[in-house]
Amino acid sequence: MHQPVDESGERVMNYVSEIFQKNIVSADLFLMLTGNELLGFGVGRHVFQYKLDDRFVIKFEHEESFQNTYEWQVWNHIKLTSHARWFAPVENISPCGRILIQRRTKGFPTDRHLPEKIPTFFTDTKPENWGLLKGRPVCHDYGNHLLLENGMTNRMKLAAWF
To answer: In angstroms, rounded to a whole number, what is the distance separating the alpha carbons of residues 53 and 103?
Structure first.
């Protein structure tokens, strides 16, 4: 999900202008919370640094993929289980699900730091979807998963990083 962006923030401003069009109050609030620090993006979401607390990111969903909602639901189902150690915690979600606040992870120093085995319910095994939190590997992009199909199993699989 993380993609490099130019330092000027021009792409962020264009993105915000396009999304909010003439609603200057919404655009102003959005920029107050995120600044122009776009950390990455995927098909349906953009990820920004949360300006009020750098331990968190804001995921802004612009397509109706419901990945924010899925992540919120997954986190709330697993947060009190042993499986929580594999997930970046979700702090909050907006009432309509378009904005999600999640713990920020740090990138892996090298590919050698990626886990060799991961739980079988993880599907989108791009290194960009994972990071380190308190020194341990966690998935921070788990909007796509096999928890419904595989359940909260303890089974592990070799990670096929791509």
So the answer is: 10
Q: What is the pLDDT of residues 59-115, one digit of tens each?
A: 999 878 899 999 999 999 999 999 999 999 999 999 999 999 999 999 998 888 899
Contact 16, 25 (CB under 8 A): no
Which homologous superfamily is 10-158 in? Phosphorylase Kinase; domain 1 (3.30.200.20)
> How is the chain split into domains, by residue range?
10-158
DSSP alpha helices (H): ranges in the chain? 10-20, 24-34, 67-78, 147-150
To which residue do tokens 């929580």 refer? 84
CA atoms of 143 and 146, how far apart (whole Å):
10
Model confidence, pTM: 0.84
Nearest Cα residue to 118 out of 72, 156, 160, 78: 156
